[in-house]
Design goal:
The structure is a homodimer. With about 425 residues, chain A is of the alpha+beta class. Chain A has a domain at about 345-435: Rossmann fold (3-Layer(aba) Sandwich), CATH 3.40.50. Chain A has 16 helices and 16 strands. Chain A has helices at about 20-35, 50-55, 85-95, 135-155, 165-175, 180-190, 190-195, 195-210, 210-220, 225-235, 240-255, 320-330, 355-365, 380-390, 400-405, 425-435, and strands spanning about 40, 50, 70, 75-80, 100-110, 125-130, 160-165, 265, 280-285, 295-300, 315-320, 345, 370, 395, 405-410, 415-420. In chain A, the strands form three sheets. An eight-stranded mixed β-sheet of chain A has the order 1-5-6-11-10-9-7-8. In chain A, strands 13-12-14-15-16 form a five-stranded mixed β-sheet. The first copy, chain A, has a three-stranded antiparallel β-sheet with strand order 2-4-3. Chain A is elongated. The two termini of chain A are about 55 Å apart. Chains A and B meet through helix 1, strand 1, strand 2, helix 3 and strand 5 of A and helix 1, strand 1, strand 2, helix 3 and strand 5 of B.
Chain lengths: ~425, ~425
């Protein structure tokens, strides 16, 4: 044996311990049910792809955030850094064998070499859902409705989904003769949350003058009810604005679905700088506004234009599971994941192990989760193990009980014991003790 | 827009289409239930680790099968190529905050740059389950029992788990004075399935002479009932063989559990050349013996000796999901994954989309999976979409029905229609049509 190697992980990478992993399993199960109930289907794509696919041709300057390398065959490859680019490639490759509209969800790991000093992880789970092949208010609303269902399925009660339209803001700037400053203004607005109103006002004044800065801020801070915001927007953009019509149609669905209190029209939502071309969404937790949006997305004109000439409009949204988990933990609304089985079958005598496994099997066949302690260590060690794992019940079956075929059941929480039970009686008693 | 990039994947890497992915979700869900019912808990580890961790110090000569590269920080890193090495590192890192015995399962992707010409994939899902921190016949049997439950949970009826003990064969060779040829003999035996008896006989004769070759083949071909094999083995190894005692104890559990017909003592099972030190397992499908073992494992003395001085004996087994899926497909026993929702709410009028979403929500709240067609395209297009996806029922709600608030439900399989239904009546009718 050589020297011991320190069992460390890379910075920004983490092990997932059972409690955490059970929670992820449960949350992903709940979300899958939400998606499937609405007709979405799951897909997966490779973790590793040609760098050209993920970064685009001429994406030569190595993005520091992308894990990129030459494989054994000297192929230029990279680990996926999101689920959108692989989905675009996927649609281009499979659109003929699929159908449109195509509604998919994808829950999988992505990798980014982010700066870990800001508490960022380099490996995290992304959950995306999209409707591709249609550009309609109905699809825009459906993503909104699924976002709402998904966040609720995680046990969060108090949150708001903010809704806007990229084109709307564009038109408003146009009406002020500011088309050419579009990106700069958007960039400034995007910083409202971080820098505050005063600093952004100063930035805008520098770009467009004090008067137009005030008008811009008034536009994005529309506030009030969604209907009031719509009215205000209507006054600021051309009468035939298709963006305004789209928002109005979505808002009608929102009201009819009883989501009027959850969904807010909010022109300050801009979702970064390119990519999105229609509606945009962000989701904020009322009790933790500071962590930013936990579920965001929007509409794009053309998903897969890098890989196919077929135009694929779409709309979708995305949850960063790890960030959301931290938030849920902070809120104390994490669903309780059950890590422990119901019953520990104690090993009191090594000659009886066949009987212990039979007892466990019979308990399982009656719907209980049962585990056999795997060797006849001291009773105190076995009970300590049960305690450490949080196993509520212990089944005793020693030499004396072996003769009679019966067993004793102890509730380790109350220290109550029921003696002389058949397996069936033990299973019934256990069920009663666990779910009184 | 530049040139179109061909939407290809790397050789040995595949997209997973919805039908396939639903199946994987379902299978992994079933397996998780089996594991958890027996007290196993899930963990996860990073896909990317220090190469030193995965390959060991001085594992300098680059293994061609390992995806290994320098990251942005010039760290020597690699993608995991199995789930055992990361688990060893995991145990060394976390044993203090966990408990022993520790029973974990891990279902995750691994990557190996295998030769794709033999139909191998370079990215595949591995499913491992282990009991660490105890060396006992009870733990050995438990892995066997969970293997049995897991394979059955996949819908496979006809299979056999082959069981042996590495030490036993060692002792037998010792009794013939062949200790030094151990590895060579093992290597020859390992080829019985591939090369056939005659060629292996010749190889063994060259190593040990014709007489001992015959004795070796007779030993590994023990055949007959497990009890007969035990008796035969007892005659060939030292009387105080702990390996024989271990197998005898496991066999008693096997019989008591009613698994006597499924589990076979088979001394020809050797599981490669190093690593395992105790029992070894392999699982063969009766109807597809040619694909080799679909679930294999064994006992090891010391899991994490590279990373800690704490000795961690363990026993475990592993399923290669992708290979098993191909096998299940060939056997025609794949569980039917339901890719389609129950009801398609047709979009007959773009001014009614809010009503369509409300109808879908109400159907969902009554336990049905319901999807809204997202725009008012021609009815034939919408019905073709339903057919393509295999959606059995369609809900009609047009201008006429909007006035009355009622809707019509059509069974697309039989073309029967029920008209003038309230949503509640539609939901009840749908439930009846789907699950008559």
């Amino acid at each position: 044996m050589g020297e011991i190697i320190e069992p460390r992980t890379l910075r920004g990478f983490r092990d997932s311990l059972p409690q955490q992993e059970l929670l992820k399993e449960e949350i992903q199960g709940n979300l899958a049910r939400v998606f499937r109930r609405a007709g979405f289907v799951p897909i997966d794509t490779p973790a590793l792809e040609y760098a050209e696919i993920l970064l685009g041709k001429g994406g030569g300057e190595t993005d520091k955030q992308v894990y990129r390398f030459l494989d054994h065959g000297q192929r230029d490859v990279a680990l996926r850094f999101d689920l959108t680019v692989p989905f675009a490639r996927f649609m281009a490759a499979h659109v003929q064998e699929l159908y449109l509209p195509f509604k998919r969800y994808h829950m999988a790991k992505v990798w980014r070499g982010e700066n870990t000093q800001r508490g960022r992880y380099r490996e995290f789970i992304q959950i995306d859902f999209d409707i591709v092949g249609v550009d309609s208010p109905s699809a825009d609303f459906e993503i909104l409705a699924v976002m709402h269902e998904a966040i609720r399925a995680l046990g969060v009660q108090h949150f708001h989904i903010h809704l806007s339209h990229r084109e709307l803001f564009n038109q408003f700037l146009g009406s002020m003769g500011l088309q050419s400053a579009y990106l700069e203004v958007l960039r400034a607005i995007d910083k409202l949350g971080k820098l505050g109103r005063e600093k952004v006002d100063a930035m805008l004044a520098k770009l467009a003058g004090a008067e137009r800065a005030a008008a811009i801020l008034s536009f994005v801070e529309a506030g009030g009810s969604s209907q009031a915001t719509l009215d205000k927007l209507a006054a600021a953009v051309p009468r035939d604005s298709s963006a305004l019509r789209r928002l109005t149609e979505i808002q009608a669905c929102v009201v009819e679905a009883g989501l009027g209190d959850v969904v807010r029209l909010d022109p300050s939502i801009t979702r970064g700088l390119d990519y999105y071309t229609g509606v945009v969404y962000e989701t904020f937790l009322d009790d933790l506004p500071g962590i930013g949006s936990v579920c965001s997305g929007g509409r794009y004109n053309d998903l897969a234009s890098l890989y196919t000439k077929e135009q694929l409009p779409g709309v979708g949204s995305s949850i960063g599971l790890d960030r959301l988990l931290s938030a849920l933990e902070e809120l104390g609304v994490l669903p309780a994941a059950q890590a422990a089985p119901d019953v520990l079958v104690l090993c009191l005598d090594d000659t009886l192990i066949a009987a212990y496994h039979r007892l466990a099997t019979e308990l399982r066949s009656r719907g209980l989760a049962a585990e056999v302690y795997p060797s006849a260590r001291k009773l105190s060690v076995q009970l300590k193990y049960a305690e450490r794992r949080g196993i509520p019940l212990a089944l005793f079956h020693g030499e004396a009980e072996a003769a009679s075929g019966l067993c004793n059941l102890r509730d380790l929480r109350t220290r109550e014991t029921c003696d002389g039970l058949t397996v069936q009686a033990a299973a019934e008693t256990a069920a009663r003790l666990l779910r009184p």
